[in-house]
Backbone:
């Protein structure tokens, strides 16, 4: 399933260019770097900090039909776990296809244990369902 | 700060948006649009951060 990662800050595209060329840590960047100087997009997703004019560390997963399925917002001083982002993305793609399954917290990738048709019969029996 | 996390809700259709990008692989400026993503049947991960030239 195809996916595009795009970063967004309130900097202009000119600053993105300068930063990407200047900072060696960004030498291998492949993703487009989005520019939102009006902060309209930041406001749409609720990550705009009016005190600073900056975007908080928000991550949003949107399906091909444009529906938002995952949101995570971190304060300035906490970085994001990319393994967890990838896990959540894969899980969203998986359950979009297998609509009668759910991915438990320990699910990492296709082939890992899921819960199938969670319903009345599974109430109080999740332990057995996870370990069967 | 007025409304952190008060934006689009999970399960909601995100209104179409478009913004200008810098494309490091081409060394050029471009456009990103949600409508275009829908047309190409592609998922999107939006990754906001405070500012360039900081320790992202």
Residues:
């Amino acid at each position: 399933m195809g996916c595009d990662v795009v970063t967004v800050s309130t900097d202009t595209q000119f600053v993105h260019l300068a930063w990407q060329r200047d900072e060696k840590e960004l030498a291998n960047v492949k993703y487009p770097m989005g520019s939102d100087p009006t902060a309209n997009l930041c406001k749409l997703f609720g990550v705009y900090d009016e005190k600073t004019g900056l975007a908080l560390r928000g991550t949003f997963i949107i399906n091909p039909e444009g529906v938002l399925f995952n949101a995570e917002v971190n304060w300035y001083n906490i970085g994001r776990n990319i393994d967890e982002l990838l896990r959540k993305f894969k899980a969203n793609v998986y359950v979009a296809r297998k609509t009668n399954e759910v991915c438990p917290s320990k699910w990492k990738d296709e082939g890992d244990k899921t819960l199938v048709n969670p319903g009345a019969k599974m109430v109080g029996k999740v332990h057995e369902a996870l370990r069967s | 700060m007025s409304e952190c996390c008060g934006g689009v809700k999970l399960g909601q259709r995100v209104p179409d948006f478009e913004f200008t990008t810098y494309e490091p692989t081409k060394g050029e400026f471009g456009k990103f649009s949600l409508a275009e993503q829908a047309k190409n049947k592609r998922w999107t991960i939006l990754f906001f951060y405070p500012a360039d030239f900081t320790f992202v």
Observations:
- Residues 17-41 of chain B form one domain.
